[in-house]
Amino acid sequence: xxxxxxxxxxxxxxxxxxxxxxxxxxxxxxxxxxxxxxxxxxxxxxxxxxxxxxxxxxxxxxxxxxxxxxxxxxxxxxxxxxxxxxxxxxxxxxxxxxxxxxxxxxxxxxxxxxxxxxxxxxxxxxxxxx
Length: 130
Known about the structure:
By secondary structure, the protein is mostly helical. The chain has two domains: 9-63, no CATH class; 84-129. The protein contains six helices and two strands. It has a two-stranded parallel sheet.
C-alpha cells in the first residue's frame, strides 16, 4: 500500500491568486504560498481576508523552492513523454506516473554512477601504449 503524506503547504504561481482559491486552501488547513498580483500597493488596499493573510505571511525563500519541482516535472515530461497512456482507472494513472518518477530516478542514478566510474579511473599512460 502506498503511504501518502498529507499536504501541508501549497505553492502556486500568481495565476491562482484569488480569494476563493485562498479560502479553499485555508479551509483544508493547508498553508498557501501564492504571490499576490499587485505587491506594490498597501496591505490595507488588498481585497480579501485570505489574500491579506497570505500577503503578511509570504515567504520568498519557500516560494522559490517551487522552481526545483517545476524542473523535475519538466525533465520527466521531456524524457518519458507528457501524455498518460492509462485510460479511466485512477489507480492505473497514479501507478503510471509513479513508475515514470521511478524511471527518472533510476536514470539519474545510472548517470551519476557512470560519472563516478569515469572519475575514479586512472589516466592512461601514453608511453606504455607506444
